Amino acid sequence: MLLEVSNLTVCYDKAMIINDLSMHVNKGELVSLVGPNGAGKSTLLKAITGLVIWEKGIKRGTAGGDITLEGRVVFDGERIERVPAHDIVKRGLIHCPERRRPFREMTVLENLYAGAYLLKDKNEIQKNLENVYQLFPVLKARSKQISGTLSGGEQQMLAVGRALMYHPKLLCIDEPSTGLAPILKEEVFKKIKEIGDMGITVLLVEQEVSAVFEMANRNYVLSSGKIIAEGKGDQLLEDEVLRKTYLGL
Predict the structure, then answer these.
(1) Residue 110 CB coordination number (10 Å)
(2) Domain limits at 90?
(3) Do the Cβ atoms of 55 and 82 come closer than 8 Å?
(4) Which residues fall within 8 angstroms of residue 37, CB to CB, at 6 or more apart?
(5) pLDDT, tens digit, 9 for 90 and up, residues 186-223
(6) What is the value of pTM for the model shown?
């Protein structure tokens, strides 16, 4: 088991976003986390990767409200729920954020190098860059282009490529299909499947249920901060209530 989340609860002021949630990801798996808007998917990823800060249980949020966190997060055999985000990255748990968020004024290559800022070995950095270029040839072709001028699909590939520059043990990808045309969504999902086939463990947050169910080893369905179902895609799709009520199918 590479990642284990136990009894995680996250509250913003009096609103409970994650409610006593437990889940796990095994090494080598591609696991999806699906559910409707507002289910708590992005908050869960942020809590796991240290972007919602744990400090004596309560931390003042950037919007002025109190954030309360309880529970346990174990990654690669060590508890990380109160480890700073940059130290979590050093351990190989990488978060690829929603809506891509490239450094828009920097070139594609500069963005990729930013993903490897914790690495000191130049040979390792170059090897990782070559692997990213092999996976995303368009990034090599656009290496000198300012990232803010890329298309939405290219920016998403850049975001994933930047996350891969540290060669993660676990790659958490948040809503990669947001704002993309159908043909670009298909290409992005194809590349994520290839990343999983490379042996990199992936936790994928998505709303495109049919696409992720086809490629994921296991799936969690999240609603109102709770895991309401878990299993393989074909098993989950046999539940008519689940399909209509939570998956929008």
Answers:
(1) 15
(2) 26-51+83-245
(3) yes
(4) 207
(5) 999 999 999 999 999 999 999 888 889 999 999 999 99
(6) 0.91
pLDDT value at 58 more than 70: no
Q: Return the pLDDT at 139.
A: 96
Nearest to 238 by CA among 225, 223, 249: 249
Task: Provide the terminal-to-terminal Cα distance of the chain, rounded to the nearest Å.
Answer: 31
- DSSP 8-state assignment for residue 96: E
Amino acid in the structure at residue 15: A
Residue 68 resides in a domain: no
On whether residue 78 sits in a domain, the answer given is no
Instruction: Give dist(CA 201, CA 36) in Å, integer.
Output: 24
The phi, psi pair for 150, rounded to 5°, reads -75, 160
The CA-based dihedral angle spanning residues 99, 198, 229, 248, taken in that order and rounded to the nearest 10 degrees: 50
Strand, helix or coil at 175? Answer: coil
Q: What does residue 226 show for φ and ψ, rounded to 5 degrees?
A: -125, 145
- The number of domains in the chain is 1
Q: Are 201 and 163 in contact (CB under 8 A)?
A: no
* Contacts for 99 with CB less than 8 Å, ≥ 6 apart: 175, 178, 179
The 3-state DSSP class for residue 108 equals: helix
The dihedrals phi and psi of 117, each to the nearest 5 degrees, come to -65, -20
In CATH, what number is assigned to the domain containing residue 104?
Answer: 3.40.50.300
Residue 216: inside a domain, yes or no? yes
Return d(Cα 126, Cα 36) in angstroms, integer: 40
